[in-house]
Amino acid sequence: MLHGTLLHPTEQNDSISLLLHTLPGVRWERLCFDTRRRLNVSAKALVPEQSNLVVILDTNCTRYGFLEELIKRGCHLFLPEKNLLDLEEMARLVMLAEEGNTAIRVRNDLLTHLVVPATIACDNHTKLIEIHQTAPGEFAQIKELLHNNLLLINRITRTEPSRISVCSVPNGGEHPEIFNLHLSFHDGSAATVVISFLGKKREHSVCLHASTGTSHFNLRNGELLKKGFESWPSTDPLYLQLHAFVDDLTQERHKNAGLDDEMVIYRLIGKIYRKMEFNLETSNW
Q1: Domain 118-218+265-282 in CATH: superfamily?
Q2: What is the pLDDT of residues 10-34, one digit of tens each?
Q3: CA–CA distance from 17 to each of 11, 94, 158, 177, 238 (Å)?
Q4: Of 8, 175, 186, 204, which one is least surrounded by beta carbons within 10 A?
């Protein structure tokens, strides 16, 4: 039995409370709401000593010192999509978690329902991944768009690319209208991401080719996340992720979608940004 604590930034939310209490295998010691008003409170003050699972939905509660204290206490952590950690701090937390045999999972609602068929996921041969996304006028969100697409690719390939190529089509202003990313891997696999900031309609599609078949996914407007209220909470993205995390902890399957994945993505985004800056200079943007 896990003993949980929730740290939520806003005032009490009955639907969140109900969702958590439907999770099997967890006894909730404390549901702490409105944590945005307790920015300087220590982990000891917020999280009961008996808790060994801390679900953090407040970005302000992801300071390194706060998380370090929880990991040293033996807590498993479920972190929000955005955190306050830099790469060095992530690396230190991953090392502490491995030493203490605790797990860190990072929330990602977009990819929750994207289930890669087992025949493809277990295929050790080369794969080709094609991602096309249209986000009209949303260049300011390019880091978030890249993050989700790269995380998706990483979950399929389970390795870092050996080569990165970036191609941008400028519009004469401060940012490109079309962004193309090509990743090559040592095993011969490849991934292409095309993000367009033109048009009026949001689109997001994924095509995965492998020797065992081809799979198509349509993530446009998050439609895969809208499964109907009648079956709530079993289709709620947060519920699905917490349920999977609790199940992995119970079965001692800790290694999955944690901070180590986030570290890989942060490094890749850094390399991509440096190549984008080069393109900006050579294209006289």
Answers
A1: Dihydrodipicolinate Reductase; domain 2 (3.30.360.10)
A2: 988 888 999 999 999 999 999 999 9
A3: 12, 29, 35, 43, 12
A4: 186
